[in-house]
Every structure is written in structure tokens, then in C-alpha cells.
Amino acid sequence: MRVNRSLLSVAGMTALLLTAISPSSATSREGAQYLGDPDYGVCRGTDPRCYHDWGNFDPAKGLRLLVYSRTAGFRHPHLGAPLGPGMNPPLKDDNVAIKAVLELGKENGFAVDYTEDVTQLATAGKLLSYNAVMFLSSTRDALDDAAQTSLRQYVRAGGGFIGVHNAFGTEYNWPWYEGLLGNANFYDHGPNQPGTVVTVNRRDASTQGLPPRWAFTDEWYNLIPYPTRVRVLAEVDEGTLPNGVRGSLGHPGHGDHHPVSWCQYYDGGKAWLTTLGHDVKSWTDEPLEGDQYFIRHLLGGIKSVLGAAPFCR
């Protein structure tokens, strides 16, 4: 729900901010003025007091990731053919991104389920069996009302969210989801082209071991709105893009600070987000400069949201 600040009294705003904080923490209430967000009506930012540590997720019991890639519009080639109904339907050779995440799970000790069936997201109780949910290049209105409610309750219960590439082109008309993305949405992009990623924060689990600058090829999303109150992890150096950053709808780019990955706490949960991952070669063994750094970056983000590594440092 987007809040009209002009209609809120001082007392009403204070109440809103306080209810956004976990009731289990007295210190959280003292920090409410900083932590509350009048645009989205939730607690969000880089302060872990926004997290609801209610004991719903114990890494010692095993780590589980659910990948959701339903498309209701353009379908990225790295997703391949649409999947059948239910959980874990048979994959085809061109479902390369999902196969890559499955392989990461096998190699790194976490279980992966995948689906494009919205009914599999219909209850928060079912989602609570997963330490994190990944939206992998989902498109447009990928959720119905029941799944929207379920995702929101899951996150509020301390659930983890990972948004990859066209997760930013999903659920445009749902303000809560826009906030989950860090106050960001996909607007447009220039041509798929090589560029240089700048590792901004090298303390995070998703950036440890990455070089300060690394070559990669992507669409380099332009964003409206632009992420705020998040921890930016990586940016693209717009000056390295041979075809420029201007998007198909005229967006001029973001200048010196064009984020491509970031993290935040949001409404009780955790969210790790990246606009990267467009090129099919990013997900396969076919050579693409920098793809090993992209996969390392993604894996670190997954681990941090699952609870296998520190989150958003």
C-alpha cells in the first residue's frame, strides 16, 4: 500500500512507523523514525532490526530454494520453453538458467525446487518450507491475488527473496513488490553489450573474491524508480559501454552510479537483487567474459539469503 503522506497526522505517522518494526525488539522501537518507510509503510533498509527473526528458518535443518520463473509477457531466451504445471516439471535443453541454479544447489549443498505454476505459491505455509524464493526473469503479472498475499506473508515471517534480471519487470502495479525490489522497477535498456562491472562493496558474501572491476555482457537495465536505502553491491561503469546506456524508451542512464546489484531488509524479510543475467551464455558453459564472476556473485547472494552466509554486509 502506498501511503499518502499528506493525509497522515504526526501521531498517525508515528504509529505507522512503529508497527513496521518487529515487536520483539525494544531497541527497534527506538529506531522507528529511521527505519520506517512512509512510501511503502514497512520497515526497510540495511538495518537488521527490520528483520523478523521468529525462528521460522533454521539452516541446520537444511537449505531449500524455490525458483519461480512464470512469464506473462516477453520470455527471456535463458528461460527456454515454458514449463509444465506443478512442481519440478521435466526440463528441456533450453531451460538453461533453471538448470544452472539446480547445478549450483547440487554443488553447494542446498536443495532447489522450481515451478511456473502460480498455484504452488498460493499459501504462505507452503512457502515457509523454503529458506528463500527466487524470482528468475519472471514477467509482468506473474502472481494472482492468493500468491501475492502468500509472498507478502512469507516475507513478513522472515522469508528470503532473490530477484534476478526480469524480476524487475514483474508486478508493475503492486507497490509492495516495488519496495521489495528496493524501490526500483525496470524502465528500459540499451542493446545487449559488453561493459565493466564495478564491485562497490567487497565485504558482502556475494562480492567476496570478486575483482574490483570485471568485464561482462548484459542489457544494463535503466530503472524507475531508482533503488534507495539499500546497500549497493555492484554498478556498471557507463563509460565502458560501446553503444551507450540510453534505453529504448529514452532513459539517459544513471551516470556515475548505475547499480546492478544490491541488498536490503524489507518488511521483516531479506532481499538480494540483481539486474544481471540476460545473456544465455551467462548460464551455460559457452564462453562469455566474466560469466564466472556473475555466477560467483549470484551464488554468494543465494547463500546469504538462505542463511548459509552473513547477509547484506
From TrEMBL:
Pfam families: ThuA. Residues 1-26 form the signal peptide. Residues 95-302 form the ThuA-like domain. The keyword Glycoprotein does not apply. Keywords: Signal. InterPro entries: Class_I_gatase-like (IPR029062), ThuA-like (IPR029010). It comes from the Bacteria. Coiled coil: none annotated. PANTHER family: GALACTOSE-BINDING DOMAIN-LIKE SUPERFAMILY PROTEIN, SECRETED GLYCOSYL HYDROLASE. This is ThuA domain-containing protein. It comes from Nonomuraea purpurea.
